[in-house]
Write a sequence for this structure.
């Protein structure tokens, strides 16, 4: 289960002075919420069918040790910190190439990871990783269960439509949501895991990554419209809303 | 390389999705600037091409494995079409098929990818995509470097 540390979006995010990236210096980092879902799904598979769950982080990610110890406290069997990337491996393409290098050296039967992350501007990890490894992949998955030497996955589509697919192993799955909410790890257990140590560092050779887009400028969303308060009686407000909808061509008549 | 802009059609077997038409609109605008035409990659029932009158051309791949959306089959079809048609840019929506196929195709087809795109423009032959990231806290413009490579982008379906 590859996990990624992403900026905590509850905090105000500042941009660097050249406006091509965010300023990471004073930011708090948390585990990407989709990766937390992927870890939960992996632990559910382990609970039901037996499996060895390995949490994998990139050593260049801020606060990754804490994230990996938390994964151990939740029930992961081991945790690996992959080294070998740049100082900070930020683009998804580079992350996928490095993780592919690690997984080539230490293969897994099944890779579960978050379908996306809040900051993956150049695409999503699971398909890129699978493409490097030459493995099948399915994204936007809401359930993974072991079945006949492979896995059965439920893939979600717009409008709530769901496909159930059988996938042969090895495979990479992009998890949208686990079958149940991610379990809680008490601080005492995380402390215990920290005291026991046991994060294994593995140096990996990155695969050749795909060409990356060039970031020209990063900026805050421009405020294009302001809220307009409608006042008056319920009938006046309803009439004003109806007029607005008509003006914008959203309703006919 | 052509200046053509390709759109991956999404459908439920009977109806082309609204998002596909939205992408087609963006593709027509970009193709005009790039001096190419729009092509739609349609996998599955070929009679759906009748609903794609706005496209310059429809590249249809019809096979029993493509009747319903299957990530592996669609990926194979997409890579074959990309190899044959060499479009300058491919647009797919940030719905499930786009999330499956975009990033994998970027690696196989060796092209840069911009995700969560809300605006697309072509200036002096460079494709510039504006994307919304970090839960709406930041936006970025990413330009395809001025080298002869196809870029691709995904436009969200509203």
């Amino acid at each position: 289960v590859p996990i990624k540390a992403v900026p905590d979006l509850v905090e105000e995010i500042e941009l660097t002075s050249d406006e091509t990236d965010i300023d990471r210096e004073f930011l708090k980092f948390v585990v990407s919420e989709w990766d937390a879902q992927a870890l939960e799904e992996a632990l559910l598979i382990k609970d039901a069918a037996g499996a060895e769950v390995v949490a994998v982080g990139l050593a260049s990610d801020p606060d990754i040790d804490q994230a990996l110890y938390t994964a151990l406290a939740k029930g992961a069997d081991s945790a690996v910190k992959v080294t070998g990337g740049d100082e900070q491996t930020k683009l998804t393409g580079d992350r996928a190439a490095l993780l592919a290098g690690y997984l080539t050296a230490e293969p897994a039967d099944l890779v579960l990871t978050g379908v996306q992350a809040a900051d993956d501007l150049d695409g999503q990890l699971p398909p890129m990783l699978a493409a490097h490894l030459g493995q099948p992949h399915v994204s936007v998955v809401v359930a993974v269960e072991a079945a006949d030497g492979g896995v059965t996955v439920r893939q979600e589509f717009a409008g709530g439509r769901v496909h159930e697919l059988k996938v042969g192993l090895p495979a990479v799955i992009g998890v949208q949501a686990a079958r149940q909410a991610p379990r809680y790890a008490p601080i005492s257990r995380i402390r215990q895991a920290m005291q026991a140590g046991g994060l294994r560092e593995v140096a990996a050779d990155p695969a050749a990554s795909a060409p990356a887009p060039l970031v020209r400028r990063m900026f805050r969303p421009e405020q294009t419209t302001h809220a307009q308060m409608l006042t008056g009686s319920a009938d006046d407000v309803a009439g004003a809303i109806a007029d607005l909808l008509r003006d914008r061509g959203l309703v006919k008549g | 390389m052509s200046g053509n802009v390709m759109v991956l059609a999404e459908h439920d077997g009977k109806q082309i999705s609204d998002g596909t038409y939205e992408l087609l609109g963006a593709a027509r605008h970009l193709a005009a600037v790039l001096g190419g035409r729009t092509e739609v990659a349609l996998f599955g029932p070929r009679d759906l091409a009748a609903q794609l009158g706005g496209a310059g051309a429809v590249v249809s791949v019809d096979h029993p494995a493509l009747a319903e959306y299957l990530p592996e089959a669609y990926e194979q079809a997409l890579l074959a079409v990309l190899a044959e048609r060499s479009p300058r840019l491919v647009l797919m929506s940030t719905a499930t098929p786009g999330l499956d196929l975009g990033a994998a195709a970027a690696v196989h087809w060796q092209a840069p990818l911009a995700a969560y795109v809300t605006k697309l423009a072509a200036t002096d032959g460079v494709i510039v995509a504006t994307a919304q990231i970090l839960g709406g806290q930041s936006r970025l413009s990413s330009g395809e470097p001025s080298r002869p490579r196809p870029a691709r982008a995904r436009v969200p379906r509203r």
Residues 145 and 151 of chain A are 5 Å apart (CA to CA). Helices of chain A lie at 33-49, 64-74, 92-105, 125-133, 187-196, 234-247.
